[in-house]
Structures are given as structure tokens and as C-alpha cells.
């Protein structure tokens, strides 16, 4: 599941999924199963079936 | 301190920020549903303003959600500052003070500088300071309500109780006089968003709030007169004409 949506993905790592989903040029924050995955750790973070992935971007806020 | 949400356009947001002379801007993290570059464009614009950024955990309803969001914010915004919101009720958007204290405890332990959005409850405030928060941000009124200082007496008590602690009235302000009122009570700053973003002319309203904060702070430091129950003439009585001795 990516950002709350059931999604079929090919990527094996958190770094790969950002490329697969078109985020590679954007500043993003990521989490896997309610745990932050820092930028420096994405390439070494494997993905598995059933994982819950969050990809968040900077947005307006109050 | 100015929020960056709900403005009619990026250009109006930029103008409002400049005219407000705000020193800190709040931002958030959200899902980018379209896969486009909206988040990147916004972040590029905000960075270009050169103003200090305070990411928030808006919309988090549990300590866990707030903690993970804060950790994600630190990774992308590259700051240890976090405006900590743990919302207890979807209708009132009031803080869940129990979750707030739990999340603050964990985040302070991780080295965050926590700006807790809280109520005007003194016991909660004491707990937040006790676990390492260095700032308190009590609400004026519910988020987005524009009601001003709903419980002025409680805010006054908080100021008296925590002298020396930076205090920020956060949420519920509607017009510049609300901000001036908060500053006249001795608060160190105000944080607002909707009052500016939803004004008829957001940039002008932002400028007005800037003046109000300045006026309120100057008035506080000047030392206001004591209010009186009875009238006391301001013009000298001595030498008054048309009176018989």
C-alpha cells in the first residue's frame, strides 16, 4: 500500500519506489510500516508484500 | 509566526509573508496525490523567502503518528524544530493533551526542539516544561475559528505562572486586535494562518497583524495604566473656569 492506496509495484527498495512513482526529483519524506526511512537509508531498505509506505512532500501548513 | 495554508495563490502567500514581517513560517508534510511537482514548487518558493521554517504535525491523532511525522519532517526540512500537534477531536480540533505529552517526551529525547500546541491548562503546561519543552503554545480559540482569546483569564494566569518561558498564542485569532491583546498580556509571539489567508485582502491583513504584534509588544513593555472603576479627570481641575469657590 502506498499513501493509503493498494498499489502494485516492481521496486525492491524504498529508493527504487521513488523513481518508479516519479518522485526522484522532488524533496520527499518516507516511512515504512509507521517507521521513518531517512534519505540516507532508502537504498538499503527493502520492500515486501503488504508493506505500508508513506511518501510525503512539503506542503502548506498552519 | 505565520501559517502558509489556504491562500488564494502562491503569489498572494509570498506577498503576505513579506508584508507581515513574520519571522517564522509553518509548513506541513502531505501526500502528493497527483504525482506532480506541487510540493517541490511550494518548497522552492518558501526556501527562497529566507524565513525560518517550523514544520508541523497537523492532522495527527495519536502520539505515534505525530512522532513519525516529526521524524519525517526533520529528514526533509533539515531542522530540529517541530510544531507538535496531537489532535483529540475531529470537530473541535482540540489538542489531545495526553498524546501531546507522550509525543513531546519522545521527541525531546530525540533532540527535537518541540513547540507544543496545547490548551491553557497549567498542569499540562507544567508537564510539557518538565519533560524538556522550552516553549509553550496555548490556543486562543479553536483552530480556524477567528474567535480571538476565548479564555483571557487563563492565558493571563499562564503568563504569570511561567515568567521567563517563551509563550506563543497559537490558533483561533481572527483580527489584528486579537494579536495585540495577546502581546499586551505579555505573550512573546502569536501564530496565525486562517485570519490572514481567508481575509478579503490577505496581504493587507498580514501587514495589519504585523503592526498589531508590534503595537501590542510596545504597549506591554511601556507598562499600561491600571484600569479604574470610577472616572478620574485627565485635564487638571485646578484653574477650571466658571466654578464658585
Give the topology, please.
The complex is a heterodimer of chains A (about 60) and B (about 240).
Chain A: H1 14-20, E1 29-32, E2 36-37, E3 53-60
Antiparallel strand pairs in A: 1-2, 1-3
Chain B: E1 2-3, H1 10-20, E2 24-31, H2 38-49, E3 52-55, H3 63-77, E4 81-84, H4 97-109, E5 113-118, H5 122-130, E6 137-138, H6 152-161, E7 168-170, H7 176-184, E8 189-191, H8 194-197, H9 202-222
Parallel strand pairs in B: 1-2, 2-3, 4-5, 5-6, 7-8
How does this structure look, described?
The complex is a heterodimer of chains A (about 60) and B (about 240). Helix content of chain A is about 10%, strand content about 25%. Chain A is α+β, with helices and mostly antiparallel strands. The N and C termini of chain A lie far apart (about 30 Å). The relative contact order of chain A is 0.30. The model of chain A has no long low-confidence stretch (mean pLDDT about 95). In chain B, the strands form 3 sheets. Chain B has a 3-stranded parallel beta sheet with strand order 1-2-3, covered by helices on one side. The N and C termini of chain B lie far apart (about 60 Å). Chain B is built from 9 helices and 8 strands. By secondary structure, chain B is of the alpha/beta class. The interface between A and B is medium-sized, with 26 and 37 residues. Strand 3 (about 55-60) of chain A pairs antiparallel with strand 2 (about 25-30) of chain B.
